[in-house]
Amino acid sequence: MARERGVQVVTRWGHTLTDLDALLKRHPGGKPTTTYSSFLNHLDKQLKAVPLAVLNKPRQLPPVVDADLAGLGASAATSASSSAAPASDAADAFGVPSAAALCLGPATSGVILRGGETEALARMEACLSQQGGAWVAAFEKPSTSPTEIDPFGQHTRSTTCLSPYLKFGCLSARVLHERVAAVYAAHPKHAKPPTSLHGQVYWREFYYACAHGTPNYEMMAANPICRQIPWEDDPELLAAWREARTGYPWIDAAMTQLREEGWIHHLARHAVACFLTRGDLWQSWEKGAEVFEELLLDADPAINRGNWMWLSCSCFFYQYFRCYSPVAFPKKYDKDGAYVRKWLPQLKDFPAKYIYEPWKAPIADQKKANCIIGQDYPKPIVNHELKRALTQQKLPMSKKVLPRVEP
DNA sequence: GAGACGTTGAGCTT
DNA sequence: AAGCTCAACGTCTC
Ligand SMILES: Cc1cc2nc3c(=O)[nH]c(=O)nc-3n(C[C@H](O)[C@H](O)[C@H](O)COP(=O)(O)OP(=O)(O)OC[C@H]3O[C@@H](n4cnc5c(N)ncnc54)[C@H](O)[C@@H]3O)c2cc1C
Question: CB of A299 closer than 6 A to ligand 1?
């Protein structure tokens, strides 16, 4: 349309660090790689062609929204010049449709994050200045904790929690990259990819580049990089996982935080994704990705689908014996189960000894904690210990047998 | 074709 | 705390 009308169109790559077409041209055969270290070699070269980010000043005028284009009809038409236009039920004074006009119900979560670039920059700067830059310089992703009680609060945090801002373009990946580089310059002994904070931004770029150059990246079938796995299809198991009633408090607490806050820590995503797919329930990673896309504030198909393939050993990562235990893993971070107590208040008075496997608590303890397993909180829908016993048998797959267990 | 290596496991031995 | 083993791994380098 612009061309027909003689309007010049200027296109810039801004959502990623690099121009993904140019980045892929640096890959052998123009094909994306599925290994991070080779990716970094190509990225290093392309980064040299990336100009410094321009941080635009805030606009003087509110943007003009064409009500016809937005499908709202003439009555909702407003513009910057008609500043006296009253807000209608369907849209505010800037023409932004109301939640009701978009057929959305009232807010269901008490957690409200302020959006926008101003807020994003303030949050980024808060991270950068933490411990005078030492926090950013020392950032090692695998050793951050997934059980923070108030991850978006103003105090010190486990990870940056900037993902919703990056997803919506409130925060430029290039701005973040440059600001972190400035901190590194002042701290010569800073961490390095893949575990550093720069490394995290490069993981984002990695999945974007891979998605950009891979047909059917978002699914298993007809996806050339995705291992074809005969997942089972059990709607009951999927629903129990989605609705936080697996009977494993760590899994259910994370799924509850996901629904309430729209965000969980990276390692909590690992835990619930592993549990749904290769670890325990053997359900398709695509089903899990759909749930994440509904519930995550930072939901991003390139990153989300890529990480689901990773966790399910469908691409990028294949060490199947690195498997998360829904009981042992959270104990490393939260011995007393404060995170579980916050998100699953039914269990708040449960003894710490049984907080991650409450079905093992004697009935007297259950009564004392006011929480009967099977009644106030579900029994486990799957036996993780049994599955582990199976993988640990030192036998060829064909000779393995399920050990007998008590009902 | 062998060997190193892979952001983030568990459970055991030393 | 650090090192070892998983007996269903895949990719890259030499
Ligand atoms: C199954 C699964 C699904 C995921 N789905 C999403 C998603 O939909 N959207 C999303 O943004 N992230 C997703 N992630 C990646 C990661 O968990 C989040 O980006 C991270 O937890 C966001 O928190 P943060 O901003 O504090 O991260 P930080 O550790 O502070 O990292 C800074 C930024 O780097 C990027 N980043 C960090 N980790 C990754 C990663 N593993 N892959 C790609 N980019 C990364 C993000 O943009 C993040 O905001 C997923 C991970 C898993 C295991």
Answer: yes
Confidence at residue A111, expressed as pLDDT on a 0 to 100 scale:
66
Give the mean model confidence (pLDDT) for residues A275-301. 98
Burial A230-267 (b: 16+ CB within 10 A, else e): ebeeeeebbebbbebbbbbbbbbbbbbbbbebbbbbbb
A377 is in an annotated binding site: no
Q: Which two tokens stand for residue A295?
A: 């519930």
Reported ipTM exceeds the 0.95 cut: yes
**Which pTM does this prediction carry?**
0.92
The string of DSSP codes covering A197-258 is HHHHHHHHHHHHHHHHT-TTTTSSTT-TTS-----B--HHHHHHHHTT-SS-HHHHHHHHHH
Strand B and A266 CB separated by under 7 Å:
yes
**Residue A99 is encoded by which pair of tokens?**
């939640």
* Mean local confidence (pLDDT), A84-113: 73
Domains and CATH numbers, chain A: 12-53+114-213 (1.25.40.80), 221-407 (1.10.579.10)
Q: Which atom of ligand 1 is nearest to the CA of A165?
A: 49
Say whether the CB atom of A13 is under 7 angstroms from strand B: no
Across the range A343-357, mean pLDDT stands at 98
CA distance A301 to A307: 10
More confident residue, A86 or A244: A244
CA-proximal residue: ligand 1, atom 22 (nearest): A163
Dist. CA A65–CA A214, nearest whole Å: 35
Tens digits of per-residue pLDDT, A176-233?
A: 999 999 999 999 999 999 999 999 999 999 999 999 999 999 999 999 999 999 999 9
Phi, psi of A296 (to 5 degrees): -80, 135
| Nearest CA residue ID for atom 3, ligand 1 | A304
Helix, strand, or coil here: A97?
Answer: strand
